[in-house]
Amino acid sequence: MAGDIWVVAELAEGGLARISTEAATAGRELAAAAGREVVGVVVAAAPDEPARELARYVPRVVAIEDPAAGEHAWSAVAATDLAALLEREGPGCVLVGATPDGRDLAGILAARLGWGVLANATGLSWSPDGPTVEMSVFGGKLLTSSAFTVEHGIVTVRPGTVTAVTTGTSGTIEPVAGGAGGRATGPGTDVPLVRVVERVSEAGAAAPIEEAKVIVAGGRGVGGPEGFRIVEELAAELGGVVGATRAAVDAGWIPYARQIGQTGKTVKPTLYVALGISGAIQHKVGMQSAGTIVAVNRDPDAPLAEFADLYVVGDLFEVVPAVLAELRARRT
Q: Are residues 277 and 325 in the same domain?
């Protein structure tokens, strides 16, 4: 597989998304193993600040300024700006986050350029023929290794796979004008730009759950929507955000945006507090990379007991109020 390693970044709240710092770190490590160069790409209406941030992770950043990115769905705008550039530069591998926008971008570029896609990478390594991508399947019960059979490929990197590390220096930034960008040939050439007419933020969401350093999650054991009040109290006291299991989301106790696990978000906080969560494999795959895992559950034999750093056997409605009282006492 010829060509360098490219990383396409996404934005969150106007800055660089955490998954993009992780993908950039993964790309840099992959490039070092392959003896190739790594290049970061930012497509935005105002790319200067995120480009400077990305330059802390990779030695070269292409900053594409496209006003359409501010008022249209990002993936289609980015694909339009990137297609001709990727065709011309011919990188061997492109990394992008396994997010809704990242998956859309990967699909559009694959259709336009005829490149292969390997999705939801949980690990990356380099072989003589190109990247080898590790993927978790069947709810985390099996790991597979896959490689491209074509010259160029796109990899979507699952959040929390890599710990983001800066280079300690600042790379170069190359401004590029977008909007009029060249069009690729082949199927899927004409991608309509979808205008964003309204943006709705979840009420009370302190931060995107993927970006949180502290997460307090509730499961079936909280008993209902009113049970999440104590989860929210502890999250607020710890300066974190609220997460949940699929069971809690399916029951309608909390929005899907808070779901962690195989069919939800993958997170990697410094501290993960699990309340009333058994720790089934479908949930484990979404939070097992947390720095420290603390759990409260009445069942001493729940699966979470096997991998939690601290496992408290008890009623969460007795344990958590005691923890809250201690935390508040320490502040006075």
A: yes
Structure tokens belonging to residue 23: 């993908």
Number of domains in the chain: 2
3-state SS track over 212-241: CCEEEEECHHHCCHHHHHHHHHHHHHHCCE
* Closest listed residue to residue 288, CA positions, set 104, 46, 128, 122: 122
Instruction: Check whether residue 9 and residue 148 sit in a common domain.
Output: yes
Q: Are residues 216 and 158 in the same domain?
A: no
Structural domain boundaries enclosing 165: 5-177
Asked, for residue 191, whether it belongs to a domain, the answer is no
- Each residue's pLDDT tens digit, 91-101: 999 999 999 89
Name which of 211, 197, 182 is nearest 97 in CA terms. 211
C-alpha span between 49 and 53 (Å, rounded) = 6
121 contact partners, CB below 8 Å, separation of at least 6: 98, 133, 134, 135, 155, 156, 157, 158, 161
Residue 291 within any structural domain of the chain? yes
DSSP, residue by residue, 44-83: ESS-HHHHHHHTTTSSEEEEEE-GGGGTB-HHHHHHHHHH
Q: What is the pLDDT of residue 128?
A: 85
Residues 6+ apart with CB under 8 A from 286: 260, 261, 262, 264, 265, 266, 267
Nearest to 286 by CA among 224, 215, 221, 203: 215
pLDDT in tens, 306-319: 999 999 999 999 99
Q: How far apart are CA 29 and CA 62, in angstroms?
A: 19
Residues 20 and 119 in one domain: yes
Residues of the chain with pLDDT under 50: 1, 180-189
